[in-house]
Amino acid sequence: MARSDAMTSSTSSSTSPAARSSATTVGILGGGQLGRMLALAGAPLGLRFRLFDPARDACGGQVAPLFVGDFNDLEAVERFALGGEDGPCDLVTYEFENVPVRTAAHLAGRLPVYPPPGALETAQDRLHERRLFERLGIPTPGYRVIDSLEDLRRAAAEEPLPALLKTRRLGYDGKGQCLVPSAEKCEAAWEAIGRAPALLDRFVAFEREVSVIAVRGRPTGGEPAEVRFYPVTENVHRGGILRLSRAPSPHVSEDVQRQTEDAARKVVEALDYVGVLAVEFFLVRRADGGAELLANEIAPRVHNSGHWTIEGAATSQFENHLRAVCGLPLGPTEAVGHAAMVNLIGEVPRAAGVLGLEGAHLHDYGKEPRAGRKVGHVTLVGRTREEVDGMLERFTRVVG
Ligand code: AMP
User: Fold this and answer.
1) Cys bridge to 64: 10, 39, 271, 305, which one at CB 3.0-4.6 A?
2) For residues 252, 254, 257 and 263, what is the CA-based torsion angle, rounded to 10 degrees?
3) pTM of the predicted model as reported, rounded to 2 decimal places
């Protein structure tokens, strides 16, 4: 369905003008798996979609019209949002957090854009993100701002090591990060991250990583916008890439759930946010047995740690994001049973092998296999945590 000409759309010829006028068209900046899952979730609500991505083979293009262009090309983005035989989009959202803020702000002057571009701006810079947490009284890992090798050397002499050097911008899935094991390794670490402005993060000996997915609707008729939260998700990363998410977590007390919700509520309200937002935390166990949460980062979009909600919650994060940005009532966020989400990295296993496991749901993103690439996920849903433990064991045995 790829289109290089943003004035045309593959659905236009089969759509009558009458049908067109009543349907809401959502433009999504980014056409990867998140855009694909948004379009799949929105179809039953009668929503139409249009995706914009620089990659001609972006996998969202298999399920919705894809407009190919550069995110910095304001004319192309404007034609995508406002032109086309199907008429303009009713609103624009994003599934990719590195959409240039200038592009999002340009569109926001012309049609509704949710979440607000200011949220993108904050999330694109780790320092701005940390300063937002600090301003809101949300604890974070200790860190130092690094603008030069000299800064790094000074920080490494004063801070406990090892520590993690992370670029402020464009870091994801473990990219743009380097462990600084000792002061002698400063230069190598500085080179490894491309000498970019960075933070030196204190290494957190966390018990586990957790995230909370919040969704905030649009304010209506003078009423404050509604905010809902999913049960906290436990996440296991390897090589900086999410491998496994489980929810609800038996290791998360009501108090921890409440703390994550309080933090996420402060963030979405401070950003006047509309849509789904994820907040990632490190859970640190104190000597007295209590739990302390340190906020690491936010994602101003639907999030990998919320994929389990498709089959594991009353309303998926994708549907709730669309409900929020379209000004529709939000759906219930409670879990239906217990879920584990396993990311498929590199290649998708044989469908028959996965689907032969009772309670397994396959999501093949239709991407070319490539080492280290997220190409799909499988969600296992059961009635109890123990049942899901057994399913995970069988999944590992059968699928590897
Ligand atoms: P990030 O890009 O900040 O999400 O980091 C990717 C992964 O690196 C996290 O999910 C953690 O597993 C690990 N990580 C990041 N920051 C720290 C830290 N300060 N201490 C320990 N591990 C970290």
Assistant:
1) 39
2) -130
3) 0.93
